[in-house]
Design goal:
Largest sheet: 7 strands, mixed
CATH architecture: 3-Layer(aba) Sandwich
Strand content: 25-35%
Number of helices: 7
Helix content: 25-40%
Bound molecules: S-adenosylmethionine
Amino acid sequence: MPQQGEELTRTAYDTVADLYADTFTSTEPEQPLELAMVDHFVVLLGHRPRVLDAGCGAGRMLPQLAARGCRPEGVDLSPEMVRRARADHPAYPSTVGSLTALDASDGEFDGVFSWYSTIHTPDDHLDRMLSEMVRVLRPGGHLLLAFQVGEGGRDIGPGFAAHGFQVTLNRYHRSVQDVASRLGRLGMPVVARLERDPLGSEGEPQAVVLARRPTG
Ligand SMILES: C[S@@+](CC[C@H](N)C(=O)[O-])C[C@H]1O[C@@H](n2cnc3c(N)ncnc32)[C@H](O)[C@@H]1O
């Protein structure tokens, strides 16, 4: 299995952008439990918070954040996913960019929302991505991360081949403890964590981790 780099991830999502955007238009894959974590995250951010949807994809979670009172903006590696985010959700700004080098000032956001956007990043590169998301959070701000639970990488190209798309795309599974430890080392204590068993066609348990940037 080749090590997944940003070029491969960008190419893969550019290739499948319309399939992804047309398949997941809203919260089809989410359970009420995960959405409860989103509710809790937003409550902790204060009034009309600025939230970066980090790895927004085709933007399906932008209106979810807005409906909860946030001022969301999206960033994603894939120009084709951002094209769909802009077309399908024109009320919210979305830009092309990498989570490993965000075009944002230190402390600019009240919240960073990473919904399954760290899952294609190999372990060796994950801390760099997390530290960049922490950098753009204000003290007292919160980071919400969703990901599949497990160990190691999996080639998820065959799932797209079934729809006629040839892409190289690996997904990396992690434990809640691993992600919490990484965040702790970055000075971000975890304040809530969810792990639930797989449902339906999901192959793995799903996790949502909420961490807070200390004020002092
Ligand atoms: C599984 S999709 C999730 C998209 C969206 N958050 C959602 O829930 O529908 C993963 C997204 O993360 C983006 N992504 C992966 N690595 C990234 C990186 N290094 N920088 C920015 N975006 C990245 C991909 O382009 C893709 O759109």
